[in-house]
Amino acid sequence: MSDPASGPDDSDASARPASKGERTRQRIIDTALDMFAERGYDKTTMRAIAAEAGVSVGNAYYYFKSKEHLIQGFYEQATIRHAELTPTMLEGKETLAERIEAALLAWLDIAGPYHAFAGQFFRNAADPSSPLSPFSEDSGESRDRDIALYQEVLEGSKTKVPKDMADILPEMLWLHQMVVVLYWVYDASPGQEKSRELARRTAPLAARVVALSRLKILRPLVKQGEELVRDFLITRKPE
Amino acid sequence: MSDPASGPDDSDASARPASKGERTRQRIIDTALDMFAERGYDKTTMRAIAAEAGVSVGNAYYYFKSKEHLIQGFYEQATIRHAELTPTMLEGKETLAERIEAALLAWLDIAGPYHAFAGQFFRNAADPSSPLSPFSEDSGESRDRDIALYQEVLEGSKTKVPKDMADILPEMLWLHQMVVVLYWVYDASPGQEKSRELARRTAPLAARVVALSRLKILRPLVKQGEELVRDFLITRKPE
DNA sequence: GCTCAGAGTTGAACATGTTCAACTCTGAGC
DNA sequence: GCTCAGAGTTGAACATGTTCAACTCTGAGC
């Protein structure tokens, strides 16, 4: 049962001299992502990846349960870099709109090189039965990292947030990002410029919605929306 | 170039004695959907479908470019039945909230039996490079049918709709449906009861948003949201 | 009724993801 | 330094989606 292929050693980038296994694993995923970016997911066979990485096909399967699981490496790597890159871009930005925009653009910067195989990537994201979906248990770590980032986006801003919404706002902003990412996946414009435009135009809107949420007339609406998110979204990951 | 496998004869259910080809095609898709619903998408091999339908594997590929294209048959069939079923369910319903809810629940009723392989279905929906995505050219007919349905939902209601929003509202309600469908795909609750609850709770919210959109304070927000949808969503399908 | 272009059909061959029994290497424990 | 459990690795065998050259059938046009 013990799910051998989920990765013999999944641990963080601690010290540890990186066992032989860890190095092999890293070599396989690096090779795979390079090849995906270069010639696309479908065009890259497991045999080719194995050959290029200097291992046998079977060995690749020792570390990654399936070809699709290699994609999770992309998601993981992307959120890690997103978490690294965003704080720098947030510096000096004080309005919520600017900060949201910065976080979104940072993501687009990072994901850019992989746009070519993004479709294939999202194929998995949309399949709940596979453990690769951003909503799945397996992706929990990556997703949480990204949600935490939006908490930072919020906390550093001057915008006052209604107390009872503070908890779920990061989740909602993360959802907003998911929408942008979804658009990006479909974006055929050169350099995915339209996605960047979407981020730029959508960020102040999101910020304004947050600000307006304090209005009396909107109170019941906001309240219900909040409950909705709480009941239907957060429930999903029991701790 | 002429894309032979997209279906030698795609025409509507007109009279016409149904050529041999049409019948074969129908037999294949019927068999496939049955088997998908029964044992799942992955577990159903093309060989099995062909055998069960009484044709050769190659013949199945004559009618459907790939296994995934069989899934488009599902989407098509679902929207056709949705368009048939909803009007009955709308009868006597006058408030916008009730009507939206009815349309959503109708969809859930229809899709219910296929929930088991919905994940696999959405895998395609999320891949823009494949022509199966609901946003793609190929799915245009099905999607438009569904959007038209929401126009009916709106028109039959008593709620007054701001003139400048009338055009895009059906699209927005369709997007709303997409969100519910997306949730449904991930829904692991027995009988997908949570999705129905989501539809029920979300319908009045959507209706209220439509109603509130006339408020002066919200005017700029609504205006921008509308432009956003127009610029980023409707652009997609040039005519 | 005959002809023939093209629709319809076949199944073996191919491409590629995945599994598995067998082997080799590593490093903790003595 | 020896031992051995278990990590790491192999490649042939397998499963299944897809292609394609060859064949057969159909029905419009004469």
Summarize the structure.
Chain A is mainly α. Chain A is 63% helix and 0% strand. The structure holds a DNA duplex (30 and 30 nucleotides).
Sequence of secondary-structure elements of chain A: HHHHHHHHHH
Decide which structural class fits the backbone of chain A. mainly alpha
The largest chain-to-chain contact, stated as pair and per-chain residue counts, equals: A-B, 34 and 35 residues
Tell me the major beta sheet of chain A.
none
Distance between the termini of chain A: 23 Å
Helix content percent band of chain A: 55-70%
Domain HTH tetR-type (chains A, B): 22-82
Biased composition (Low complexity) (chains A, B): 1-18
InterPro entries (chains A, B): DNA-bd_HTH_TetR-type_CS, Homeodomain-like_sf, HTH-type_TetR-like_transc_reg, HTH_TetR, Tet_transcr_reg_TetR-rel_C_sf, TetR_C_23
Keywords (chains A, B): DNA-binding
Note the topology.
Two copies of one chain form a homodimer.
Chain A: H1 20-39, H2 46-53, H3 57-63, H4 67-90, H5 96-111, H6 118-125, H7 140-155, H8 169-186, H9 193-212, H10 219-232
Helix pairs in contact in A: 1-2, 4-5, 4-7, 5-7, 5-9, 7-8, 8-9
Chain A binds a DNA duplex (30 and 30 nucleotides) through residues 8, 19-21, 24, 45-47, 55-59, 61-63, 65-67.
Structural summary, described in words:
Chains A, B: This is TetR family transcriptional regulator. Chains A, B: Keywords: DNA-binding. 2 copies of one chain form a homodimer. The first copy, chain A, is mainly α and 239 residues long. Helix content of chain A is 63%, strand content 0%. Chain A is built from 10 helices and no strands. In chain A, helix 1 crosses helix 2, helix 5 packs antiparallel against helix 7 and helix 8 packs antiparallel against helix 9. Chain A is elongated. The interface between A and B is medium-sized, with 34 and 35 residues. The structure holds a DNA duplex (30 and 30 nucleotides).
